[in-house]
Structures are given as structure tokens and as C-alpha cells.
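Help wanted!
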Amino acid sequence: MAQYAVMIFERETPGGAADLPPEVIEAHIALPDRVAALGGRIVAGLALEPSGTATTIRGREMVTDGPFIESKEAIAGVFVLEARDLDHALALAKLTPIVDGGVEVRPLVDFRVVES
Amino acid sequence: MTGRPFAGDVQRAVADAHRREWAFVLAATTRTTRDLDLAEEAVQDAYVSALTAWARDGVPSAPGAWLTTAARRNALNALKRGQVLRTKLPLLLEREPAEEDDSMETGGPDTIPDDRLRLVFTCCHPALAGEAQVALTLRLVCGVATGDIAQAFLVSEPTMAARLTRAKKKIAAARIPYVVPAAADLPDRLYAVLGVIHLLYTLGHTAPSGEDLVRADLAERAIDLARMLRDLLPEPEVLGLLALLVVNHARRATRTDAQGRLLRLADQDRTAWDREAIAEGDRLVLAALDAGPPGRYTLQAAIAALHAEAETYDRTDWAQILALYDALLEAWPSPVVALNRAIALGMVAGPAAALAEVERLEDDGALARYHYLPATRADLLVRLDRRAEAVPAYRAALDLVDNDAERAFLAERLAECAGVAH
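Answered by r_m:
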């Protein structure tokens, strides 16, 4: 199986995740099972606070308020997906609940959880 | 074979095998190398070695099998010599159980599976940019040299080489599978392939810029591809696309006059059209129409065939063409189709009705950069004897056109109107 990052880009709302409609939240909760039913696997997932909470360090020193790249759609979350190939990965990524944005599917070089 | 063949015959045989067998040889070699770059190089070398081997031993009875065996051996040797950095990401190939022992060492000429469809679908994968799909198809499926592809796209050879490399890297890294899509995805994916072939033909037929209106080689490559696809996957829309290309190509000689100036359909010498090709296109259209509700390529082909069969422009069956455009607009809602429908409407209901449609399209704004919109408006105004109004419309079309032959054509129409209007 190949691994992909599925990056969720959404138009930001003032309340962030709290503004998500309940059916979208439910769809997120149901996503791992739906992916598994189609022969894939969600290995890990990250849900991010809104980009207004981000702090960027440019180079090594310059600390600025906000995300590295300002845009209307901001990265809202990432999950790591295992799939047979890109066709399979795209079919699974299409299950991601989206309000007003989309997802980017990117193959991974490596994914590991660092044990302490 | 008795005696050594002449050098000219060998060169011809190799060139012929290049045109006919490249896709088969590359697809079969890719199955064993699981790496497009390695396969491409090994196949290229196999064609080079064929020149000497066939001169020495005679032209083999099955050139494709000979070339495949040679290419596989080249790839294996390159791997043994360690000259190839074998990618960590072999091309994904779903193996059917019966093929388990089809490896580089054992795959004999009798057992070479036909992987051309896998190759075509991989090159035309929607995860690749449109221009990368066209370039990859030309390089890997048609075997066109990178320098020639660069010339067709008006970019430098290093630029085109980088574009091809980037696309091949993405296929490996993103794991685009080397498979024919599953039945559920096939219709959409097939349209992607047909779109690439059609674009290739269009590139050859009307060069977007530059002086040659017809780049015959690209157009013929596109028709070869459509024929190959028809043999491998005879879906109705594949027949439709092949019909469309064949019929358009049948009229290629008359699109311009002896000076290279563009001729309107109404002014073309219909006796110079290739009747045999038009008849072939017609048979293909009928076969596609028999297969069920027609898709966009079949409908376009049916329209082209009606034009090609008409004795004169005025005696064209415009009513049926209008009905086909209505169906096409439903199958493929596009402002360009709506514009062409307006022209047919003009022939059925008169230029005033067509002009109203053109004005509706102008308000819509989707064709604001499309020179045929003001050009059509100008033609209709001329037919309505409103030549003074046609002048600014021709000027607007001239501002948008980027093909020299079409520019000359529009400039001539403008001069005619301006002469009368002033």
C-alpha cells in the first residue's frame, strides 16, 4: 500500500471548527470506517485550529503572526491515507466532507510516529 | 530470408516498425521494467540495433516481437551493469494470476500481452496536466522524438524534456497505476484519452500560431492513435472520434488556397475532398449511432459527415445539421457549440435569427477571447447588408486571432467591407 497525505483546504470562518455543520462533523467521524470499507486505511489525522492562531518563523529568526501562506482557503486538517494507488487514493479522498474548499492529495516519502 | 536486404529496405522496415509497433514494444517492455524511463531508453536502443541486426540477418517476420525481446534484454543488461538507478517506486501493475511468471527472463515473443491500452490510459491520466498528457502520449505512445514534440509546442527541447521528465516522475511518485481503468471509471477516463487525441489532431490541423495551417504529421499521428484505440477498445465514442478526424482530414487539402490563404467551407473545392475517407467516416458514424444514444464526438462526426456529403454549401442539409447541433448542445453544453449552432440556425432561419443568438452569446461573455464570435457576427452583418457595422466586428476578430492564415483571411474580409462602407 502507498501512503498519501490528504490536506483539507477550507474557506475560513470566524469560529473555526466550531462553525462546522454537525453533519460535516459526523461525516468526519465516520470517514475512517468508510475508507476501510473500500479497502483503504486512515493511519493518522490532524485537525488544525484556524490560521489566525498560527505563528510563522521565516528563515530562522523572523517570527510573524499568521500562516506561512495567506490565502482565502487555509489548510484546516491533514490525514494520512493508505491506498493501493493514486486512483484508489483519489476515490477515497473524495469521501472527505468539505464545506467550501477541497483537498490536495500528495504522496508521502515517509510517515512515522516517533516513539519516546 | 535469403540474402542480405538492401540498406534502404532495412531502413524502411525499421521506420515502418517504429510507426506501427512502437506503442506495443514500449508497453510490453514497460510491463517487465516497471519503469517508463528505463523502458523508453531500452526501446530506443532496440530500434537502433535493429538497423544493423536486420541488415545482417534479414527483417524478422514479427518485428514487434523481435524489438520487444531486444528491448527487454537491453533493460535487463542495463540493470545488471548497474547503470540504472532503479527507482524505489516501480510502476504499479496489477497482475492477473495467469501472468505470474511473465518476468523479464521468461517472457517469450509468443506470450507478449498487449499493454497498449494501459500505456494510453497512464499517459492520459487526469492527475497529469493536459499539456503533459499530450506530450507524454506523443513521446511514449507514438514514439515521437522529444525535439519534434518541442517543435510542435513551440518550446525548446530542454523545456520539453523537463516537462516529460516531470510527468514521468509524478507517475512513479504519486503511484499512478499502469492499468486500464475499472468499468465504473472507464467512460470518464476514456473521454480524457479522446480529448488528448482530439487536441493532438487540432494542434496538427490548425496550428495555434505560426505559419503552417496544417501540421500534417501531428494530425496523422492523431488519426493513427484513434485507429489503434478503435482496434483495442471499439466503444461508440471511439468510433465517433475516429469518424470526426477522418472526415475533417478528408477536407484538409482545400482548407487553404494555393497561396496558403484560408478558404471558407462555402468556397472550398469539393471535388478535391477525399471521397474514400468520407465514406469511411460515414460508415463509422453509422456504426456509432447504431450503438445507442450518441455522445459528443459521434454527433460532431455526424455533422462533419453531412457537410462532407453535401454537393454544395447551399444544398447542405442544414435542417438536419441544426437538429444535430441541438442534440450536441444537450450532450455537451458549451458556448462554442452554441456559436456553431447559431451558424446552422442562420442557414435555416436566416441571418437575423442567427445574429440574435450571437448577441446572446456576446452578453454571456464566455467567448470574449474567441475570435470566431466577432468573425461570425461580422459575416452575419454582411449577409444582412449591414457592412458598416461588420467593419468593427472584423477588427475585433483580428485583435483576437493568432494564426497567420486566419489573420490574412479576416483582413481580406475587412478590406472588402471597408471598401464598400467608406
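OP: Thanks! One thing I noticed: Residues 97-107 of chain B have pLDDT under 50 and may be disordered.
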